């Protein structure tokens, strides 16, 4: 039940299935995609987009934060949550799900990479993320619109998914 109150505040279920012992276990998400694991050394952390988490070893610590702002509100209702997982005593492993295929990009210091708001799965805490909104004009008399994307600036890793499905929240 470690982190149960935080999970309730974030709108996540508080009941988790725990398994122990020898053998195998299978788990999946309710959509087509890529299930993969990230190993976390003791004290190492990774930030994960909400609803991408599947499972973790018991020695992984969990916290979250809410991103506010107009760009996040446009694509997340009242904002989006970012889950943070850290390797506890002896490290740990988390399993995540990305829609489509998941690709990892390693950014150098100061290197930037632009991603559609629903296109990222995880990032290292050293990677800065900011919302960019660019106004678009279509000809002299054309209408206007906005292009919204996340700009990630290194150093560090970012996981990108090749497709995005909006997972409706239960009210």
In short:
The chain is mostly beta strands and 171 residues long. 8% of the residues lie in helices and 47% in strands.
Key terms for this structure?
171 residues, mainly beta, Double-stranded beta-helix, three-stranded antiparallel beta sheet
What can you tell me about this protein's structure?
This protein is mostly beta strands. The protein has a single domain, classed as Mitochondrial biogenesis AIM24 (Double-stranded beta-helix). 8% of the residues lie in helices and 47% in strands. The chain has two helices and twelve strands; from the N terminus they run αββββαββββββββ. It has helices at 4-9, 70-76, and strands at 33-40, 45-49, 53-56, 60-67, 80-87, 92-99, 102-107, 112-115, 120-123, 128-137, 144-153, 156-161. Strands 4-5-2-9-12-7 form a six-stranded antiparallel sheet. The longest helix has 7 residues, at 70-76. The two termini are 23 Å apart. 23% of the residues are buried.
Q: Tell me the name of the CATH homologous superfamily.
A: Mitochondrial biogenesis AIM24
The main β sheet shows up as: 6 strands, antiparallel
Question: How much is the radius of gyration in Å?
Answer: 17 Å
| Overall form | globular
Q: Going across the major beta sheet, what is the strand order?
A: 4-5-2-9-12-7
Number of strands: 12
- CATH architecture tag: 4-Layer Sandwich
Structural class: mainly beta
For the termini, the CA-CA separation is 23 Å
Number of helices: 2
Count of folded domains: 1
Order of helices and strands: HEEEEHEEEEEEEE
Percent range for helical residues? under 10%
Assigned CATH class = Alpha Beta
What is the residue-averaged pLDDT?
81
Strand content: over 45%
Q: What is the third-level CATH name, the topology?
A: Double-stranded beta-helix
Contiguous runs where pLDDT drops below 50 for at least 5 residues: none
């Amino acid at each position: 039940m470690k982190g149960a109150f935080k999970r309730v505040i974030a709108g996540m279920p508080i009941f988790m299935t725990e398994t122990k012992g020898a053998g195998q276990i299978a788990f999946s998400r309710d959509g087509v995609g890529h299930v993969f694991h990230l190993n976390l050394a003791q004290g190492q952390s990774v930030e994960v987009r909400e609803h991408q988490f599947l499972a973790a070893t018991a020695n992984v610590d969990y916290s979250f934060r809410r991103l506010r702002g107009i760009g996040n509100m446009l694509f997340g209702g009242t904002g989006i949550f970012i889950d943070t997982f850290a390797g506890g005593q002896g490290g740990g492993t988390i399993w995540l799900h990305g829609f489509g295929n998941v690709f990892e990009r390693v950014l150098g210091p100061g290197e930037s990479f632009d991603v559609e708001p629903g296109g990222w799965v995880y990032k290292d805490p050293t990677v800065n993320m900011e919302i960019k909104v660019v106004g678009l004009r279509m000809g002299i008399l054309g209408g206007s619109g906005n292009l919204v994307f996340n700009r990630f600036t290194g150093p560090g890793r970012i996981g990108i998914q090749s497709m995005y499905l909006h997972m409706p929240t239960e009210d």
